[in-house]
Amino acid sequence: AASDAAAAKPEIELIKMLRNRTGAPLLRVRKALREAGGDMEKAAEALRTLNSSQAMKKADRVTAQGLVAVQARSGSRAGVAVVLRCETDFVARNERFLELLKSAHSAAAKLFEKSQDPVIETLDAEHIMSRLDTDASTDSSGLRSSIADAAGILGENLALDRAATVRLPQGADGIIESYVHGRVNASSSVADVEDGIELGRIGVILAVSTSSKPGTLDYAVARSLCLHIAAAAPETREALLEQEFVAPVPPALTDYFAAKQIAAPTTVRELLSAVESAAQSRACPGLSELSLCGFVRLDLTEARAE
Q1: How buried is 19 (Cβ within 10 angstroms: 0-12 exposed, 13-18 middle, 19+ buried)?
Q2: What percent of the chain has a predicted confidence (pLDDT) above 70?
Q3: CA 132, CA 69: separation in Å to the nearest integer?
Q4: Cross-strand bridge partners of residue 63
Q5: pTM confidence score
Q6: pLDDT, tens only, 222-269
Q7: Which of 197, 194, 232 lies closest to 82 in space, CA to CA?
Q8: Under 8 Å CB-to-CB from 167, ≥6 apart: which residues?
Q9: CA 213 to CA 287: how far, in whole Å?
Q10: If you ran DSSP here, which 8-state letter would residue 205 be given?
Q11: Alpha helix positions (H), the chain
Q12: Residues 6+ apart with CB under 8 A from 131
């Protein structure tokens, strides 16, 4: 019995190493290793081929779940959001799915960094991969392989949906603000807070220019606008301006309106006009004249088959 255990130990160690490397299920790893005669590289390649085959079989399944990843670091001049879809909410919380989403977000951010215009840029999955293909510093095959591997291991169709960025115009003072609704508090190390990436079901990134260096109240107004966009889902800048404002008005502004006996603004356009008047009067410290540059709102409302 002791000699049997000694003979089995090398195989157990190989299985552990290959499973850590590929993330594949235990029985699948053991089968691949045995069929490869204990050759790690051959077994890993066999698992990749199997994952790719299984991913193709699932490609017509509807991906109604998933997550939006949003990153807009404090003081930055651009924010990036990416949508990755799956079939079930359970998989959307899986560590491998979160790792894949982080990789997709990183790839999209690198693409967007190479351009400073326009203020808003949105890419679907096809155009993301096409841009990666033509960029010598990136590798679309790596992202494709990662998606296929994760789909094979997790047993669901996974689909990179969209990516978007919002930038401040060059030379302008301003704020990039974001908001994520239905936020996921991932305990996984792949969703580190230090990365500044927030995960949820709705993601908003907003760019507003300011007449001077942004103050505390400017950030509060931008945050309120993000909350409104998440709730009201405007499709265009003009539609946003005409919408009834449904988010909380920052308390400092509410106090200003009351002190001046000014009616509370009912639309986004009226809010921005009231902010301009308050800033010009210098009655609200930390408030500038704000101009809406652009926004994106990404969500999971449309179930898709990719």
Answers
A1: middle
A2: 83
A3: 19
A4: 304
A5: 0.80
A6: 999 999 999 999 999 999 999 999 999 999 999 999 999 989 899 999
A7: 197
A8: 77, 78, 116, 117, 118, 119, 120, 121, 176, 207
A9: 10
A10: E
A11: 2-22, 26-35, 40-57, 89-92, 95-113, 125-134, 140-154, 216-232, 237-242, 251-259, 268-281
A12: 111, 123
Helices marked H in 190-282: 216-232, 237-242, 251-259, 268-281
Tokens of 128: 């993301």
CB 158 within 8 A of CB 125: no
pLDDT in tens, 211-231: 999 999 999 999 999 999 999
239: amino acid identity, one letter? A
**10 Å Cβ neighbour count for 23?**
19
Q: What is the pLDDT of residue 272?
A: 96
Q: Which of 52, 43, 31, 33 is nearest to 146 (CA)?
A: 52
Strand partners, 180: 203
Under 8 Å between Cβ of 237 and 197: no
CB 275 within 8 A of CB 287: yes
Please tell me the distance from the alpha carbon of residue 148 to that of residue 140, in angstroms, as a whole number.
12
